[in-house]
Amino acid sequence: MSETKLREDICRFGRSLFERGLTPGSSGNISVRLDDGGWLVTPTNASLGFLDPAKMSRLDGNGRLVSGDAPTKEVPLHTALYQTRTSAGAVVHLHSTHSVALSMLPEIDPRAALPAMTAYYVMKCGQTALVPYYRPGDPAVADAIRGLAGKYSSVLLANHGPVVSGDTLEAAVFATEELEETAKLYLLLRGLNPRYLSPEQVADLTKTFGLVLPDHPH
């Protein structure tokens, strides 16, 4: 896919996420890996609803700005995911309400923030890790992501929001949306003793769709 098309797609998906209230104000950022090893990322203090393809930050393979506006301060977080998830073609980070709320609950397992609630959550997100709170832009968050050793495509930053990688931009966006909807389901059903997918049902999904999940029970 051409770089021009990727720039347009970032703007298109960003506007869709913004207009549906999934990341308010100037929160959230999106990046896409390029064929030359560099990547495109949304600029700092930019609203995902009003992005300009021409002003997208273009970085080299080491995360240094090559052209465009100054990049988001969350570059270390994106860099860490690309370094540890070699299949990642895009990364989406939002401040979506239900995912942030989930990240603040005391009972959340850092190795599996959500149970296997639906087939599509397992298929698109696998399992979701929770990393401790760091201030936005803190390089230490990159170390926390690297500590997951590339096992998770779906991560919650405590008191902050989700960061999700995918093979393509579309896949990353869809997985982020699935995470948000599953977090919403969890909050709606919290304390009601809902029925989750059984280990056998998860194993069937894993076999049927060739999923690779972290070695941690749901």
TrEMBL record:
NCBIfam families: OxoTetrPhDc (NF043034), PRK08130.1 (NF006000). Residues 8-187 form the Class II aldolase/adducin N-terminal domain. Its EC number is 4.1.1.104. The keyword Lyase applies. It comes from Bradyrhizobium macuxiense. It comes from the Bacteria. GO terms for molecular function: aldehyde-lyase activity; metal ion binding. Pfam families: Aldolase_II. Belongs to the aldolase class II family. AraD/FucA subfamily. Coiled coil: none annotated. Transmembrane segments: none annotated. This is 3-oxo-tetronate 4-phosphate decarboxylase. PANTHER family: 3-OXO-TETRONATE 4-PHOSPHATE DECARBOXYLASE-RELATED, FUCULOSE PHOSPHATE ALDOLASE. It catalyses: 3-dehydro-4-O-phospho-L-erythronate + H(+) = dihydroxyacetone phosphate + CO2; 3-dehydro-4-O-phospho-D-erythronate + H(+) = dihydroxyacetone phosphate + CO2. InterPro entries: Aldolase_class_II_sugar_metab (IPR050197), Aldolase_II/adducin_N (IPR001303), Aldolase_II/adducin_N_sf (IPR036409), OtnC (IPR050013). Keywords: Carbohydrate metabolism, Lyase, Metal-binding, Zinc. Catalyzes the decarboxylation of 3-oxo-tetronate 4-phosphate to dihydroxyacetone phosphate (DHAP) and CO(2). Its cofactor is Zn(2+). GO terms for cellular component: cytosol. GO terms for biological process: pentose catabolic process.
